[in-house]
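can u pls check wat happens w/ zinc ion
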Amino acid sequence: MRALELVGFDGPASLQLADRPLPDPAEGEVRVRFHNMALNHLDVFITHGLPKRPLPAILGSDGAGVVDVVGAGVTNVKPGDEVVLYPIVSCGHCPACHAGQEVHCPEMAILGEHTDGTFQEQLVVPAGICHPRPAHLSFEDTAALPLAWLTAWRLLFTRGKLRSGDWLVLVGIGGGVATACLLLGHAHGLKVIATSRDAGKRQRALDLGASAAFPSEGFSKSVQQATDGAGARAVVDTVGPATFDESIRSLAREGVLLTVGATSGPKLELLLPRMWFRHLSLVTSTMGNHSEFRSMLDDVNQFKLRPPVDRVFPLADGGEAFAHLEAGEQFGKVVLSA
Ligand SMILES: [Zn+2]
């Protein structure tokens, strides 16, 4: 079985194709044969040792494929079923797991971050994380869903508590989470404003349902104009220090700044009076619970949503795929084919 192995922490150059023995499922587990897998920024960060994992390691949180073999006691899927994986494995017996709050399980592991992930032809996983894939999507589209769309769903609806009619600003449209927020937000009746330096990406955002799309430079003024001076109910900022000030200036009174990633760096300076005089909230999130994954899939099925896929690379060209994501020029997900 072919696998894309990380053998060092020098970025995409540390990835190479390797041969691994075919794993067998134990009780309660299944082996999935992947058609497609998708990259997340998390995978790129790990190639630089942020965080470090024992090597060689197989990265990848997102995968869609066919159930190949099932272990004893598995009843929710059978060989031949086409599935997509909830990208989180939790202990299943702690108070957080019992409460359906897998993100707070002390033993929570993201596929590919703490355990070997999806960037291989076949992987053994707990049967419980397998879900039927949306019938209207290809395997390539399906593989683009798990981590980014789960993160977007929890961020907007559980953590952000956004509702139909709210103005939502997406800073730097193009990445997986931002494009998922655009499609999910639009489906739920939010009025979405996208920002990008790239005119082509702004046009793509409008084509996907954004109410407006503005250049990145000083975007808060455009947001204030578009909302008749009221500002936006929420801003999703996945960029961090480079855009945070403009994001805060875009918010309405009692608005919510939603942060879920920081591609421009992890530390920032916050002018607190600007926050408290306008009663703003800073709300964080990452990933999501199993129930939120089901809700996300329900939305994708109900609204016939299709995640934008930027490019598909063969598994053997995985290093090239990582370099492409790292360059940041993509719109939608970067996908691998097994
Ligand atoms: Zn647990």
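The chain has a mean pLDDT of 96.
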